[in-house]
Amino acid sequence: MKVRLPVDLKDRLAELAAENGRSINAEVVRRLEESLASEGKAVRTVKVDNQTLDLFAEKVGEVLGGVLDERDKRRKSRL
Length: 79
Prior knowledge:
79 residues
C-alpha cells in the first residue's frame, strides 16, 4: 500500500517515531489502531492547559459558592 503524505505531516510523524523509539511505519500503525479503537468510545481524552483548568476551577467555585450561600439562607429562614 502506498500513501502520499504532506511533507510536514511526514516530518512530524518521523519526529514522533524517533521520540517513541519506533519506525515511521510502526508509529503510523499504532496511531491508526488507536484512532480506530477509539471510534466506538463516547468519551475521548482531551488535553487541557493550565489556564483552562484555572478558569474551570474558578467557575466551579462560583457555582458552589452560590449553592452554599443559598443553602445557608434556607437554613437560617427555617430557624
